[in-house]
Write a structure and sequence with these properties.
InterPro entries: ADH-like_C, ADH-like_N, ER, GroES-like_sf, NAD(P)-bd_dom_sf
Protein name: NAD(P)-dependent alcohol dehydrogenase
Mean pLDDT: 94
CATH architecture of the largest domain: Alpha-Beta Complex
CATH superfamily of the largest domain: Medium-chain alcohol dehydrogenases, catalytic domain
Family: Belongs to the zinc-containing alcohol dehydrogenase family.
Cofactor: Zn(2+)
Distance between the termini: 16 Å
CATH topology of the largest domain: Quinone Oxidoreductase, Chain A, domain 1
Order of helices and strands: EEEHEEEHHEEEHEHEHEHEHEEHEHE
Keywords: Membrane, Metal-binding, Oxidoreductase, Transmembrane, Transmembrane helix, Zinc
Radius of gyration: 20 Å
Length: about 375
């Protein structure tokens, strides 16, 4: 089977949209999905910064949505041809965390999603000349017209929904909203401060507003602060003097919860100082430098932890977020700008420059 895909051939060069070849049909437990739309996440772009860890050439993309065109049957055969699906991260399905409804902490998460996935010999995904492409980024490789995925990655959705917009619910929006609704279980009377008003941060703001949480959003870009305010948060410029003290005043003594999307150690220390006693800080971005905590930041019962994929079971949280969107309480579509697949390099430039919050590619 031949189709178009955006191939990253080296860590330094642009994507090239070219013909690729899928040399196998779905195996048991797999489905072939015709991609309708796929979000661009900063994790896709981070491959360039972590050169050597994720193999190239590869097809990236892990916020896909589309229509099932073929299945391999098996235990997840409830998903059938013609079903509309949102794709999420991969997991083994049988380790202790997977069996405990924590698939984001799968024992094999890194190998399945980030660093090469399952390799086959002979390769079943190649370029037009027969050269192997690194297989199944996040179980998807959905910067393409088709994706062969494990059926457990696919969440069936109502075919009446705008499928081309739903892909980011599988990762970026899932992560921010899940941190609020799952990790923090925040609700009326709680307070939250979000550091970084990108796709993850703004989805956290929307989820917090829907849950009745008093929310403050911190960012250095005025346009993103304006978006956070539109979605229900009190905006606060990152350069504000004595930022933790301002947050404590706005949250009646300190936020119960803080969410950091920046991975910046100075910002993380400010977040900890903005918490009330027993407050919790969640980190969703990967740290690239050592984190030195300032004295006193973890005193009085404060805690810090990393949150992966919003602690979500995608088949539970994605329908919940769609329901909130349908009720007008989670307007994620307002963060999206669409591009043709051939415009992937423009989408990357716009994302890096902060001109767009969530690019979605339309193959």
């Amino acid at each position: 089977m031949r189709f178009q895909a955006a191939v990253l051939r080296s860590y330094e060069n642009p994507f090239t949209v070219e013909e690729v070849v899928l040399r196998a049909e779905p195996a048991v437990g797999e489905v072939l999905v015709e991609i309708t739309g796929t979000g661009m996440c900063r994790t896709d772009l981070a491959v360039r910064r972590s050169a050597g860890r994720s193999p190239v050439p590869t097809i990236l993309g892990h916020e896909g949505a589309g229509v099932v065109v073929q299945t391999g049957g098996g235990p997840d055969a409830a998903i059938g041809v013609g079903d509309h699906v949102v794709l999420s991260f991969d997991s083994c399905g049988h380790c202790r965390n997977c069996r405990g409804a924590a698939p984001a902490y799968c024992d094999s998460f890194a190998s399945l999603n980030l660093f090469g996935g399952r390799r086959e010999e002979p390769p079943r995904l190649t370029d037009a000349t027969g050269k192997a492409l690194a297989p199944r980024w996040f179980g998807q490789s959905s910067f393409a017209e088709y994706a062969l995925v494990p059926a457990r990655n696919a969440v069936r959705v109502d075919p009446a929904l705008p499928l081309e917009l739903l892909g980011p619910l599988g990762c970026g929006f899932l992560t921010g909203a899940g941190a609020v609704l799952n990790t923090f279980s925040a609700g009326p009377g709680d307070t939250l401060v979000v550091f970084g008003a990108g796709a993850v941060g703004l989805s956290a703001v929307m989820a917090a507003t829907a849950a009745g949480v008093l929310t403050v959003a911190v960012d250095q870009h005025q346009e993103r602060l304006a978006s956070a305010e539109r979605f229900g948060a009190t905006p606060l410029p990152a350069a504000s003097p004595d930022l933790p003290e301002q947050i404590r005043r706005l949250t009646d003594g300190g936020a119960q919860y803080a969410l950091d999307t920046t991975a910046s150690p100075p910002v993380i220390n400010k977040a900890l100082r903005a918490l009330r006693p027993t407050g919790s800080l969640g980190l969703v971005a990967r740290l690239h430098t050592p984190l030195a905590l300032e004295p006193g930041t973890l005193d009085r019962g404060r805690s810090i932890r990393h949150i992966c994929e919003g602690d979500a079971v995608p088949g539970v949280l994605i329908p919940r977020l769609i329901g909130l969107w349908q009720a007008g309480r989670f307007p994620f579509d307002q963060l999206i700008r669409t591009y043709p697949l051939a415009g992937i390099n423009e989408a990357e430039r716009d994302c890096d420059a902060g001109r767009v919050v969530k690019p979605v590619l339309l193959p």
